Structure formats: structure tokens, C-alpha cells
């Protein structure tokens, strides 16, 4: 999924409009629920807003399965905090 940096409000609006639906199949195969994935990403952005109120720029990264994007140690690079969301597909 290629995502550009957006404000949290703009990203939440795009999630609500279904703008990420086209990427879900590539990431999660045929066994996913767009409503569940939308909720997961929406919750992630909202949690970012709660934790980092002064940082309004958001960029989402996702990988299928149990792949780790940044390792298991929190990474802090020039004030940028990386959050990882995970999902399980039954």
C-alpha cells in the first residue's frame, strides 16, 4: 500500500470514504472484511491523535501476515514515532 503523508483528519475521511479498499486484497488476500480493516486503521489514526497531539501528519504502512516493519524495539527518529498495527485472519 502506498500512502502519502496526510493530516489525520484527511486520512480519517479517506478511510470513511473507502479509499483504502482497493489495497486490502493485495495485503490480506481474499479473506478480509473491509469494515473490520477500516475500523482497524481508523482506530490506529485516532490513537495516533491521542498520543501525539502536536503531530498531525500521518502515514500508514502495512504488510501482510506477521511481517515486522520496524522490528520489536520502538524507533524514534527526529521526533517521528512508529506505530505498528497487526491483524489476524482466521
Measured between the Cα atoms of the first and last residue, the distance is 22 Å
Based on the structure, what is the oligomeric state of the protein chains? single chain
Unreliable spans: 86-90
Q: What best-fitting shape do the alpha-carbon axes yield? A: globular
% residues in beta strands? 5-15%
Taken together, the total number of domains comes to 1
Q: Please give the order of strands in the largest beta sheet.
A: 1-2
Q: What's the number of extended β-strand segments?
A: 4
Number of helices: 3
CA gyration radius, whole angstroms: 13 Å
Mean of pLDDT: 76
How much helix, percentage-wise, in residues? 25-40%
Q: Report on the biggest sheet.
A: 2 strands, antiparallel
Order of helices and strands: EHHHEEE
Structural class: mainly alpha
Q: Secondary-structure map with pairings?
A:
Elements: E1 6-7, H1 8-16, H2 21-28, H3 34-51, E2 57-58, E3 76-77, E4 80-81
Antiparallel strand pairs: 1-2, 3-4
Helix pairs in contact: 1-3
